[in-house]
Structures are given as structure tokens and as C-alpha cells.
Amino acid sequence: MTTRSSDDERWMAAAIEESRKGFPAPNPNVGCVVVRDGAVIGRGHHEEAGCAHAEAVALEQAGPNARGSTLYATLEPCNHHGRTPPCTQAILASGVQRVVIAAPDPNPIAQGGAERLRAEGVEVAEGVLREDAEQANPVYSFRFRTGRPFVLLKMGVTLDGLIADSRGANRWITGEQARHRAHELRAKMGCVLVGARTAEWDNPQLTVRAFPKRHQPLRVIVAPHSHLRPTLTLFTDSSAPTVWFSPPDAKPPGPHVSAVSLPEEDGKVAPAAILSELASKGVIGVLVEGGAVTAAQFLEAGLVDEIELHVAPKVLGRGTQWLQGSGFQLDEAIQVEWIETRAIGEDLLVRARVVN
After folding, report:
1. What residues contact residue 130 under an 8 Å CB cut-off, 6+ apart?
2. Domain chopping of the chain, boundaries
3. Mind listing the pLDDT tens digit for each residue in 234-244?
């Protein structure tokens, strides 16, 4: 039986803070610190999919001083060769004496790291600040706990809940900092989804441009009844892959576009079927960015896990409401718990967790 030192929680807390950095979707957020003689000699996080994992970054920083040290990782070190070699291999080669893990890896492909390290004679302790580590890695944890991607609904709205004026104009409702936040959410989730109207009317790019990003998010258009024009930016811009949930006879307008036809229920493609298809493509989180009909479909299907509104200090009085669906009676209303409310530049950020 392995024992825990009195400092384990202290150093694991440092690793959890490190894990909050980076945008590695569809991989997990992981942080790592290497400690020797009461001091951190290496720290790292998983910046992006395809980049070095947190353990490898921290061990490279520690160098030969890693021999005989203790390594703290927020997630069980991977034991398989994906885009990068297994972290267990780097740990064993470094001569680390003890490994402390916060949470087991829920992904069956990546599991087995703790067992492998023990088999090679490394002391392993598990479960240190597990809940905190999983809360810092919510999208990945949710995907493997529930079997479907985490869904975040984000909308930029006026104070009276509109996303466009009476002429359809919507650029820009929110300010620059709110738009930067939208790019962060795209990077965090790794997949951004819009409906046919948003794709046609707004002609968005749906990429991360506010800061350097090696891998762009998967872009998704839900347009099963629309033969979208091939000149849409989502079709002509090949900087990111695009999935088009399309009519059965649709032809992909570019090599970066895949057209997927799904069965319909009552003339609609069920959001659950969309999420199932995206999960099969490795998606762990979906950012629904619009429009009002698509947002309502996911909410009414009970498949929105978190809502984030960016509320602008503007009132229009008439225009497009941010939700356009069947709606609910008062006694059936969707209930939410407040997560956060704060200023974001000139706008107000409101985050809520859906609880029913």
C-alpha cells in the first residue's frame, strides 16, 4: 500500500493550476509538477493536441535532476502511443522515484499508466485532490462519464435578449473582449456548431483567430434541408475541418468538408443523433453558437449542460430573440444554477449550469 506525504496536496494543487492552461481538446487538460528536495524543478501542461504532454514537458524542464524525484500529475499518465509517445515511457526513462496521481484516466484507450509504473517499481499514490482535478477538466471528464460530448450554449445578446435587430443586423452586438472570449471557448471545446440560418446569413468563419492556435476546432453546420451555397466561408476556408449535417444528396464542396446525412424524426435531425455522430469522430465538447432555432432544439432536447450569455449594454426593442422554439410552460421551465456573473469589457458575462 502506498502512502501520502503531508505535502502531496500542496504540490497537486500546483499541478491543477498548471492544468488550467492550454487548449488541448479533444485531449484532456493535464498539469504536472516535478518536485525534489521540497522545490519544483519542472512544471508543464498539455498545450494542444499533438504537442508534448504535461509530464513530458515537466520532465524535460527538470532534466537529469528528475532522477529520484516525485512527479505530480492531475490525470493518470497515458500508457499508449497516440500522436505522442506514452507518458509512462518518459517517466520510467527519467528515473522518477514516486508518482502521485489525482484522477484515473476515464478513457479506456489511455488507461493502465498507474499499473505499468507500479509493475516497473515506481511508487504510485492515487486520488490526491481527485475532485478538484476533475473539476478543472470538466469537458473531458463529462465525455467519458456520460458517453456524449459536453454541450455549452453561448450567445451574445442585448439587454432585452435579442441577437439581431429587426433588419437581421448583428455585428457587433457585443464588444471586443466578449468576442475574444468566444474564441477561447472555441479552442476549449474543440468543436463549434451552428444551424443553417447562421451559416447562410452570418457567413461566419468559426475559427480561433484571437490568439495563435495550431489546431483549429471542428466546425459543424446543422442544415439537413438546405443545399448551402458553395461560396460560404465554412466551405471555402480550408483552415479548419467542417462537418455538414446535410441533405442525403449533398456533395461536399471541398476536401476539408464532410457531408453526413442522419435519419430524421418529425422532419428534424435529433440533437442526440448529432452528438452521437460527433462523439464517434472523437469530439469531447460542442460549443453551440447559434442560431436561435438550433439553440432551442438542443435546450428542448435536454442536451445543453451549460449556458453562457454575453449581455451587451444595448436595448433594441424589436428583433430576433435568442431562443426560437416550442418553449415551456412555467411549471416545466428549464432550471439553472448560477456559476458566474462578471464584467467582460463593456459587456456582462453570465454563466449558468443546466440542472434539469
Report:
1. 102, 103
2. 6-141, 147-354
3. 999 999 999 99
